[in-house]
Every structure is written in C-alpha cells, then in structure tokens.
Amino acid sequence: MARTKSNILTPAERRVMDAVWTLKQASVNDVLQIVSKTAPVAYTTVMTVLKVLEEKGYVTASRDGRILIYRPKSSRNKAQTQALRHLVGEFFDGSKTALAQHILRQPDISRAELESLESMIQVALAKKDS
Fold it and tell me: Is the pTM of this model over 0.85?
C-alpha cells in the first residue's frame, strides 16, 4: 500500500523551516549553515528538504541570479496548529479535552506550568463571556 503524504513537518523539515522562519529569506547555503550547527548535513539533503517544503506549501522559491531564495509561505503558528490537529486526531480521538487531561496528569508538570495554564483558561473564558 502506498504511503499517504503528510502535510505535517518531519523533524528534518522542521529544522529547515526553523532556519527559514528565523532568516525570513534564505539560500540553501544559509539554511545549511544553521542546521549543520547541531549535526553534519549535506548540501544536497538541505536542497531536497527545501524542495519538499516547497511542494508541501511551506516555502516559496524565487531566483536571484543562479541562486534560489526560499521564503516562508506558512507561519510557524500554522505549522504548530496543523501538527496539533494531527496529534489530537490520531491519538486523542479528536478530543482537545482528552489531550489537556493527559497533559495535566503528567507527573513532571510543574506548579508554574499549571498556574500558567490556569491563567490562560481564565483569559479564554473571559473572551467567551464577552
């Protein structure tokens, strides 16, 4: 059976997108300089990942002489939302409540994180009431 193409970023695609989001516009070499700081990466690998990201609609490419310049076409927030929807759909039967409950049951969640979530819930509730 053929594998379905996903619009969710793979870890390698996310690293490349992080570089493009940071730089706002970048050549393959620009991205390579950033992503290779954490692990060696080949120029052709970065070039291939950028081409995949263009096909997925995350970046747009334009020529500057002989060099392709990539710019974000999709925001980091949009990518996060897509990934979260996928996670909720795949692992929590589409229930955001089930995801939130799962997070709250984690033993490593700190008091500060819980207080931050509580504050965000209060703000969201106030917006719903107005």
Answer: no
Task: Give the model confidence (pLDDT) of 19-35 as tens digits.
Answer: 999 999 999 999 999 99
Q: How many domains does the chain have?
A: 2
Domain hosting residue 123, numbered range: 95-130
Residue 122 is assigned to a structural domain of this protein: yes
Residue with tokens 């291939």: 48
In-domain check, residue 85:
no
Over residues 86-120, the pLDDT tens digits come to: 999 999 999 999 999 999 999 999 999 999 999 99
Which is nearest to 52 in space by CA: 2, 1, 86, 11?
11
Q: Is 79 exposed, middle or buried (0-12, 13-18, 19+ CB in 10 A)?
A: buried
